[in-house]
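Need tokens for this chain, all 322 residues.
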Amino acid sequence: MGLQDRHPDYDKYADQWERIRDCIAGEDAVKDAGVRHLPKPENMMQDQYDNYITRAMFYGATGRTQAGLVGAVFRKRPIVQVPNRLRDMLDNVTLTGIPFMNFAQETIEETLTMGRYGVLVDKPSDDSGRAYFRSYKAESILNWRTRNIGGEEYTDQIILHETGLKANDDGFGSETFTRYRVLELDEENLYRVTVYVEGRDLDDFIVEEEYQPTNRGERLTYIPFQFFSPNNLSADISKSPLIDLVNVNISHYRTSADLEQGNYLTSQPTPYITGMRNDQMGDFPIGSAAIWFLPEQSTVGMLEYKGAGLTFLENSLSRKQA
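Here are the structure tokens for all 322 residues:
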């Protein structure tokens, strides 16, 4: 296996995570995903499909539910107890200006949303300065491995995907680049960190830095990375608490698309004429000021929708929304 390979369980949940992210982001993200969330009806032309998407309504139930759940958790301010010597650190737990309470809220939000989150306690590579938190969303925790040490199960390798910014070659603006942070226990069961960055070839990665964080001068015998899930703190992936709601939300969106398409088609009656030869055909404008001169024996009428099909869609939409 290579640096970019993903854990088998990661692939099982990747599609779910993508659906959740789109539903949380809202209508634009869901519609931009196109056929991933709204299959294209058979024989529908692309311009018709584009209008099919445009007319559909995405009801933002998932995002509202997420905000409500997180708000309920923090309705009462949590009590935080730390030694006095660490209290000042709570004002900036990431060394990027994020206080502990905001960091805790993001942890809760991601855990409730995706069912997975990770926090690494890290130190500068030169071992100077204090420890700080690094956070990782579910999609960034690519691979992990456990090992039995002295009869106890330990996580002995975690591979994390990161993105960074670097200056453009012309000196103006910046561009993103990919980085992989590998946390592992070496042959002596001591903790080390290796950071890889992209080389000239996109599949070629070079070591940017390697370091061994210490605690009071002693190397660690464990990986200071904590997994979070709604059920436990293990490395195993848990089902997202929101995935069932997300699936109904997507189904509601599809039903809305069908209903709006039906409303669009059936709200425009189509005129028809019978009993005319091809050489008698011409333009037939519609309106109170238009007069049609037709051959004898011709008949005209309007094709209009009749039946309970749209009523069924309306009822289905209401049930899913409820």
